[in-house]
Amino acid sequence: NRAQLHAWLTFLFHNRLLHSLMNAKRVIINAAHYLVLADKEAYHYDMAMPFLGTDETRLNQDSLPEKTVIKLDATPRFVVVFNPLEQERLTVVSLLVNTPRICVLNEEGQPLAVQLSAQWQSATDMVPDVFQVSVMIRLPALGLTTLQLIKSFDSHNMLKSSVRLFLHGHDFAGHKHEAVPVQVLSSATDDFCLENQHMRACFSGPSGSLKSVHHVGDKQEQQLSSQFLIYGTRTTKDKSGAYLFLPDGEAKPYTPKDPPVVRVTEGAFFSEAAIYYQHIQEVVRLYNVPGVDGLSLEISCLVDIRDHVNRELALRFSSSIESKGRFFTDLNGFQIQPRQYLKKLPLQANFYPMPVMAYIQDSQQRLTLHTAQALGVSSLSSGQLEVILDRRLMQDDNRGLGQGLKDNKRICNRFRLLLERFSSANKAQENQLASFPSLLSHITSMHLNAEVLTMPLVQEKLPPPALRSFTPFSITVPCDFHLLNLRTLQGEDEALPSAETALILHRKGFDCGLEARNLGFNCTTTQGVLSLGSLFQSLNLISLQPSSLTLMYPLTTASPNSTTIHLDPMEIATFRLRLG
Predict the structure, then answer these.
(1) Is 451 helix (H, G, I), strand (E, B) or coil?
(2) Is the distance from CB of 529 to CB of 302 less than 8 angstroms?
(3) pLDDT 10s digits, 363-381
(4) Which of 442, 452, 413 is nearest to 299 (CA)?
(5) Is the separation of the CB atoms in 251 and 230 below 8 Å?
(6) Under a CB-based contact definition with an 8 Å cutoff, are residues 145 and 129 in contact?
(7) Could you list the residue ranges that cross the membrane (predicted)?
């Protein structure tokens, strides 16, 4: 029947997508294997025994990814770290290991400071014999670097996290590790805060929800709260389904049967608040990094509403920003579209797609919600941003699917919440026709959607060949440039590549009116000028030919002399390169 066919097709496409992701990682792993070898002659491809492993695994097409645990013994283990962005990156890299006695060395053999944290399998129970180690490293643009992990009893560079666990009526029956101190408390009546050198975020003690944010240098605290909400569906006529959103009125607060368990972790490189509700696990993390990652809050929501009937789960952020019902959403991550809440329209008519980001603002501040997955968003009241996390609907909405939305899984939604201030000389103008994210906002979005990839060496016993970092660029790419693609073109013989390479670049438009902050790397803009002749390390640019976006038609003749290009903001350009 139709339901069985739908289930089979869902399973089929889930499997295809999973295998596509696995194959893409295999390509990255094999390329990284060759690039990090000091002696390229030692490269040998073995499909049955890859040189590098993946950073995470999945049991099946429905399960969430689980991080790989690196097992340490007397033999050192190496990990290759890949930065998929065209900008240098100062970031915190976290790995799972089987011992708390560990030393992490960089490529030069210098020991790095390590934050040691527990790995949790539930609100109150640690995973036995698994620990999270976090180090702060600087990664080259589009580059690879290596870390060495050694089992060591020297705790000189070990910085242990401290954990406070507020049970709120729940029992504590979990394991404790001596390596990670845990303070178990029955309840929290006072608010608590997480802070770094840039900002302080405060949370409600009883509920664990976000309450306010204060940036260093600001005169007053910004009220910024979060709340989970539930939408029902209409009781008459058409009801909500796969294509229709027909709520039974305004959203109601999500009220779980029991108060949440709140776990507060504080450490040298990151601090976080983990809140465990009946259907939601929310983690709000603040990185202690001098740069992009430390200027926003990282939020992840693990959602499971499989026991709900005709319910839609939403997350609402409320602030004191006087947005007056005006908000902004992106169009496929390329440009920003202004939106206006209209009370005369039904509630559902005020929701819009949010592929990458949405923000609200007034003349003083801007609040941006960056997302790693496309969701629906709205601003139903001044100062609010609201996003739909998951939907479970039991009936067909007569729009072609033929059934309800009942195949829900445990899903993880990831966000970054960025609060920015307009500079005193550049106040935001009301009813402006065009709006752009700031440079910080663009880079925050890229950090969220292009995570660092860690690849441990598979060989545990044999001494590995000599490894070295790989840095492909010899100059800094301007911060407003994004490298969309760089690939070898197919030759006339389909089995062989051609001598040409396709380069696709995008220059982002950005708002200069927001206060500039330290991004943690050499961020420069060059008015759209980029010298491709000196871009690549150890490679010469023989010829450069501008091409149509599809690479089918040359726009000018190939030139061996002109190697500098110019892009206007919001433009995408394609080039054919010959490198030698």
Answers:
(1) coil
(2) no
(3) 999 999 999 999 999 999 9
(4) 413
(5) yes
(6) no
(7) none
Cross-strand bridge partners of residue 115: 134, 159
pLDDT per residue as tens digits for the range 552-562: 999 987 766 78
**CB contact at 8 A, 35 and 144:** yes
Q: What is the pTM of this model?
A: 0.95
CB-CB neighbours of 574 under 10 Å:
19
**Token pair 């990282």 is at which residue?**
298
DSSP string computed for 519-552: -SS-----TTEEEGGGTBTT--EEEEEEE-TTSS
CA distance 308 to 408: 10
Which domains, ranges and CATH numbers included, belong to the chain?
A: 1-160+452-471 (2.60.40.1180), 481-579 (2.60.40.1360)
Query: Which residue(s) pair with 266 in the sheet?
Result: 162
Amino acid letter, 122: S
- Distance, CA of 393 to CA of 404 (rounded, Å): 6
Exposure string of 377-408, with b = 16+ CB inside 10 Å and e = fewer, is bbbbebbbbbbbbbbbbbbbbeeeeebbbeeb
